[in-house]
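Bug #77: duplicate submission created two jobs. Keeping one. Sequence:
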Amino acid sequence: MTRDTVPADEILSKASAVGQYYGFTPLSSLSLKARGAAHTKGYPETLAGIRLDPVAETVASFLKQFQRVEPLPSPRQPLFVWHTNLAPGRPAQKKVTLQFHALGTDRAIADTVVIRAVYALARDLYRQEPVIRINSMGDKETRARYARELNVFFKKRANGLPEECTARAREDAFGAAEFAIANECADNLPAPTEHLSDASRKRFEDLLEYLETTETPYELGRHLISRGAVWNDICFELTVGGQRVAWGSRYSDLARHFFPSSSLHATGATLHINSSGPAVKPIAPVRTRFAFVHIGDEAKRLSIRLAEDFRKARIPLTQRIGIESLAEQLNIAERDNNPYLLIMGRKEALEGTAILRNRATQVETILPVSDLITRLKAVA
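Kept job's structure:
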């Protein structure tokens, strides 16, 4: 039986741990830094008339708060953020929303880290193995092409479809497709991946390669679709016991309404779960001893696979998987004042090793990845 209600304290502590090991900063800490900034702006006028689904409304609310954060994320300095409607010292929400966002980069690693973080958290909270289903709706060019294909499909098959479906198709091809899928009359419905532009196809293939090389289990969701005014390119869902518990997508088109002067790339996912219990207790600050820094795709892929091993072993470690710049990773490690650096480049990843550097003495030790947990526990 699916575990559908979890104590609020457990939700908050596990979300915080996942954020730590996958490199997500809580929005609450960023908001504290920006407390002296101008008040949060309202919703952009450009959003007027655009229909937002419930998840899009949640993401829009996040972006409204994120407007206070400076400087804006960039490809060199992307920002990975997690957020929840649970607040320490306040009564627990009956319906908890957890969000994980990657902002400032359009690399496939950003999507992968968001998916892995939500997957790890869902597995912990529901105590079942979630199913990841993924698809791509492509860019604006793809969506326009796909909409034309849907219109042709519904016109040709109007006599064999429910009347409500054909009525919707006259107004909204995507709405009709959603109806057909929900009512299991979508046989031979065109798949959006069959009409991807070259750029969208490349982005989708890059993500699938990342998922496969990081041993992330997934299924292709042929009939998983999203609305074009808000979401773009990849979309995914996590189900537990046949029920959707999380939804995610790239949403750069939505982000541009809030940051019109910046081409802000963004990927996000929201997870919903019922909670119970009294007021939420504050989480004690985590004192980490190791900062794991990595350079190159081989090291990044291995670091994603190692994140769960570190978390399960409770190694006092933090890492910024989605940040590619070594200098930026080292700056963060310096700011966090971790006594040790765990360093991995392409050479180390291929050899199955990592370098442990004592920041006080600069002494370096080469550790085998196969024995990494035991060796780090001995140092910790």
